[in-house]
Write a structure and sequence with these properties.
With 125 residues, the protein is of the alpha/beta class. The protein is built from three helices and four strands, in the order E-H-H-E-E-H-E. Helix 2 runs antiparallel to helix 3. The longest helix is centred in the last third of the chain and has 18 residues. One of its GO terms (molecular function) is 5-carboxymethyl-2-hydroxymuconate delta-isomerase activity.
Length: 125
């Protein structure tokens, strides 16, 4: 399980945001680690319409990527994956750094909890 959840300021142009390209790169980075099965990788994004950054300049933008992981990977494996995912995020939004940008990333390993899944995606891959 690797779930990518992107929050971003709504003032980012759609062609800059290019979510499907970003998601494809993140999914490939996850697969390339060898730690995450393709069928368990998901991405979603939420535009934030109400926000304020620093001095309130409406030109500033933010992107925040949270990666949720199922338990069971070592700290070294998580660190390696996190660096890979953040590199993808940085490269994707590199052109934005000609203005104020707040970019952040966090990876959370979910504690074992009661959890139910039903997934037949492997039948369609």
């Amino acid at each position: 399980m690797a779930h990518f959840v992107l929050e971003y300021s709504a003032n980012i142009l759609p062609e800059t945001l290019d979510l499907q390209t970003l998601f494809a790169k993140l999914h490939q980075a996850a697969v390339d680690t060898g730690l995450f099965p393709l069928k368990g990788i998901r991405s979603r994004a939420y535009a934030c319409h109400e926000y304020r950054l620093a001095d309130g300049n409406p030109e500033h933008i933010f992107v925040h990527l949270t990666v949720l992981l199922g338990a069971g990977r070592s700290l070294e494996e998580r660190e390696w994956a996190a660096k890979s995912f953040f590199q993808v995020l940085e490269a994707h939004f590199a052109s934005c750094f000609s203005r104020g940008v707040a970019m952040s990333f966090e990876m959370k390993e979910l504690e074992p909890v009661l959890k139910y899944n039903k997934n037949n995606l492997q039948d369609y891959l």
